[in-house]
Amino acid sequence: MNNPTDKQINRWVEQISESHRESFDRLFRALYPQLVRFSVRYTGNKAAAADLAQDAFVVLWKKRHELKQIDSPKAYIYRMVRNRSLNYIRDHSSKTTGLEAMEEPRVEMNDDEEQEERQMNLLKGWISDLPDRRREAFELSRFEGLDHDEIADVMGISSNTVNNHIVAALEYLKERHLSYREEENSKAKGYD
């Protein structure tokens, strides 16, 4: 089950709290890939993100008897991964391996693919330009599929503040996109 419902996650967590290993395995298989992608956005390191997500599940199992007290298990797990990712950044911020400077190999693309990649890179850049908390709320909503209450729980803010962050992010991205389109149209007409 790649995209379980909140109801299914809650049922698994309830079963995990009673030490059902099969439910733990199902939860792990369903959420682990999403949590790794989520952590990579913070760490920039897929191997570290995989370890951090796995570590969160280890802690979840160890604390399984306390899980019945949690209102939103999905948000709880995301918060665990977020906190581990932030700790990883803090602990590794001054360490570099030299691999960061290596370029990825260039793959030949046709014009449509290059245009699509250019637009995706622009969008990623615009998203990265958002203030940190606004970007986090936006990414949790649009890329991780969390609802406002879950995001509020992960970020430790109210759901109204989450809504304000997402609305502001969407307005900013819309403005950037319109500006980009106008610039492209003007270049195409030869006004630039």
TrEMBL record:
Q: Annotated Gene Ontology MF terms?
A: DNA binding; sigma factor activity
Locate the transmembrane regions by residue number: none
InterPro entries membership: RNA_pol_sigma-70-like (IPR039425), RNA_pol_sigma-70_dom (IPR014284), RNA_pol_sigma70_bacteroid (IPR014327), RNA_pol_sigma70_r2 (IPR007627), RNA_pol_sigma70_r4_t2 (IPR013249), RNA_pol_sigma_r2 (IPR013325), RNA_pol_sigma_r3/r4-like (IPR013324), WH-like_DNA-bd_sf (IPR036388)
Q: Which ranges carry the RNA polymerase sigma-70 region domain?
A: 27-93
Query: So which domain of life are we looking at?
Result: Bacteria
Pfam families assigned: Sigma70_r2 (PF04542), Sigma70_r4_2 (PF08281)
What is a biological process (GO) this protein takes part in? Answer: DNA-templated transcription initiation
- Give start-end ranges for the coiled-coil region(s): none
For this chain, the family text in UniProt reads: Belongs to the sigma-70 factor family. ECF subfamily.
Protein name per the record: RNA polymerase sigma-70 factor
Q: Where does this protein come from, organism-wise?
A: Halalkalibaculum roseum
